[in-house]
Write a structure and sequence with these properties.
Layout: H1 4-34, H2 59-67, H3 85-97, H4 99-106, H5 108-116, H6 128-152, H7 158-178, H8 187-203, H9 206-215, E1 219-220, E2 226-228, E3 233-235, E4 241-246, E5 253-259, E6 262-270, E7 275-290, E8 302-316, E9 319-326, E10 332-338, E11 351-357, E12 362-367, E13 374-378
Helix pairs in contact: 1-8, 2-7, 3-7, 6-7, 6-8, 7-8
Length: 394
């Protein structure tokens, strides 16, 4: 029998070599995506509109929306000032530095079938769903949108700046999702080593960008992110995307899907050449739940509880002007967003939002065109109702 200590040393060396190769592949993929940055690119996802959700597009806003998106869950504290960033970063860095060890502890079969391959429709084993919808497609579109934003604002090396923006976005996202957990977590391995770089490469292709922009009308419909300085809380945050596919033999009706940490499937109707109204129903993530069971102290397996939701949306040229979302089983059951351009007070057109909860309390806020974040205030301190995700063996 071979010496076990020798086997451990050999495994660590192989793991380190694989990690270096993964890093090289990551750098190579990102290098491919940034080639030809001097060449002017077509605007598929950023159009410099002075109204709607497009008026709020900004690299730092994107980082905050995507990085803190998980805090929209009911059982995650939304105070960003007291967040354990150092602990989150240390654990993400450890897992990224030891991918083989983390995956081995999680189980290679479970890793592939739950994180990579669309194998199961069971929500407890479908961690691949946000990997494809949010990281691969949403992240790819966002990277291309940011590249177009930097180019239209005449920032040198726009594609390289877009890659830097997306890297900051995804690292913050993983740190916030990890929180103060210490142990094996394979989610950042799948996201940062596989889906995120592939997304940037995928949408750097003009044919792909053209299909998603012109055929599917893929658009960013993020909320109007705001800070509540009295609580140190981030509210009304979350990156959302909309898809419209024209129904056969119809110029007016489209199949419609709006998603983020939720998903509403329905129909969209063109009112005229610019404006559309859409409606849909589906599911929204309520809480994060750890299903690691007896291994929860050293291994993370997160899923979500889903409840029903429905919404109605009004847009102009795929730039969202107003939305109303209702989910009766959520604590915050009603969310109304009126974007800049929907209402005007003379030459001033602010964005406004209102969220109501089941205790008849409210959070409201105001946003401004091209502002990084808006200003929010609440009728009471609602952070006390939020707790960390609890273990659930079921």
């Amino acid at each position: 029998m071979r010496d076990t200590s020798f086997n451990r040393i050999l495994f660590k060396k192989k793991s380190l070599m694989l990690h270096k190769r993964i890093q090289l592949c990551y750098i190579l993929l990102l290098s491919i995506a940034t080639l030809g940055h001097a060449q002017e690119q077509d605007a598929y996802f950023y159009h410099s509109y002075e109204y709607g959700s497009q008026a709020l597009v900004h690299p730092l806003a994107l980082i905050l929306h995507g990085g803190y998106g998980i805090l929209a869950m009911e059982n995650r504290p939304n105070n960003i000032l007291d967040f354990p960033y150092a602990a989150g970063w240390d654990n993400v860095r450890y897992n990224l530095s030891h991918p083989l060890t983390a995956i081995k502890s999680y189980g290679w079969k479970d890793f592939i079938t739950s994180e990579i391959v669309p194998f199961s429709v069971n929500s407890k084993r479908a961690q691949y769903w946000p990997n494809y919808t949010m990281h691969l497609l949403g992240g790819g579109m966002s990277s291309r949108m940011m590249s177009e934003w930097f180019e239209q604002h005449q920032i040198p090396h726009p594609r390289l700046c877009a890659v830097a923006t997306m890297t900051a976005y995804h690292l913050l996202n993983e740190v916030v999702e990890n929180g103060d957990f210490k142990g094996y977590n394979v989610d950042p391995i799948a996201d940062l080593y596989i889906f995120d770089p592939l997304s940037i490469v995928l949408f750097s292709n003009d044919n792909v960008a053209h299909f998603f922009s012109r055929t599917l009308h893929f658009s960013d419909w993020s909320y109007q992110l705001a800070l509540d300085p009295w609580r140190g809380a981030i509210v009304n945050n979350g990156q959302n995307f909309s898809v419209k596919w024209r129904l056969p033999r119809s110029e007016k009706w489209h199949l419609f899907y709006n998603y983020g940490n939720h998903g509403e499937l329905g129909l969209s109707c063109k009112l005229d050449q610019e404006r559309s109204i859409s409606f849909g129903a589906g599911l929204v993530a309520k809480n994060l739940v750890d299903i690691a069971g007896d291994d929860a102290s050293t291994l993370r397996r997160l899923t979500t509880n889903l409840v029903t939701t429905a919404g109605i949306f009004y847009d102009r040229n795929q730039s969202l002007l107003a939305s109303v979302l209702y989910a009766g089983k959520l604590e915050e059951y009603l969310r109304i967003n009126l974007y800049p351009g929907f209402i005007r007070f003379g030459r001033f057109s602010p964005g406004l939002f209102l969220m109501l909860d089941r205790h008849k309390e409210w959070t409201m806020g105001i946003h401004w065109q091209h502002a990084l974040v808006g200003l929010a205030w609440a009728s009471r301190d609602r952070q006390v109702d939020r707790v960390e995700p609890k273990q659930n063996g079921g």
